[in-house]
Amino acid sequence: MLQCTAYTGVPEIDTLVALTTMHGGPDNPPHALTPDHFLLCELAQHDEHTEHAAQLWTAEIPAVRDLWLFWTGTSKAETYRFAELPPCPAAYHPKSVTHGQACVLYEQHPGGHSWEVTDPLGDLLEERARQEVERLRDADDQDCTD
Ligand SMILES: [Zn+2]
Ligand SMILES: [Zn+2]
Question: Which of 60, 52, 37 is nearest to 105 (CA)?
Fold first, then answer.
């Protein structure tokens, strides 16, 4: 299934407050704030009644909850809230019982687990980056032969 394509601007002041007051949050909240100021919804595509969700902070201690930003509506009339939620307990073990991939979403999230969600934009950017690296490497090789 595809990833939801919604994104939102980070409500900076409120996010700083939430990071500062959360249990087990970052030592330096301003540094923890995502630098690009936009967050993508990390859920699988969903209907308009389901809130979009983006993780703001991953707790370093597994027992501690992660901080999530939930929002609904469009940029003109957006409402958002913060929630500290435990991680989704699901894990995907395609080959081995001990080595699995944990779902990066929160407990009782809607839609598929993170490993079931594909992100065409992310994949596209990754492919672009890979091609760029190859192009630079080829350019380097040519420099050497000159
Ligand atoms: Zn969404
Ligand atoms: Zn999950």
Answer: 52
